[in-house]
Sequence to fold (190 residues):
Amino acid sequence: MLNTLKAVSWSDRLQLISDCPIAPLSEFRIERINLMLSLLKHDKNSENRLDALSDECLKQTLTYEVLAAFTEQIKIPAETKTSKDFIVMAFQAMLKRECANHRSVAYYAAAMNLTPRYFTTVIREMTGNTASYWITKSVIVEAQHLMLDYSLSLKEITFRLNFSPQTFFSRWYRQYSGEIPTEFRKRNRI
Fold:
């Protein structure tokens, strides 16, 4: 059940919910939410706690119940998506998962059964930037995220980002961000 819940994407509705943070609840929805809250409260106060998986599942179910209450009230505009929209969305999803391991336009194009030329044309047309730009930007963001974890050495970060050797990563990072990794870490040390 947890995998099913994690697979459902509500990101397209979160902006709509933030625009309209109040939603009326039906009696049925109120009963369900109150039941889940009482189960969570009872579980918290009891000596015989549910196992962690059940507890997490109940919390996620409650979250989805509340989100469902909002989305029932919101009129979601019907958008017609073109094949180019789907290419961009698939590319964005792939970048989040694979930018640390794959930095070539050809890889992403092949994964979508497109030629690199057509793929780059679509990405540029739809986003205003090339696929290479988005790949580089994603790797930089991932690198910065990893560099903020001070328990990781630059060597470990280089390995995680699939660069070899570390000096190549430092030069690459400086070329695209304007500073070397150690400068970024010093500037962002808390």
Notes: Confidence is low (pLDDT under 50) at residues 1-9. The chain is about 70% helix and 0% strand.
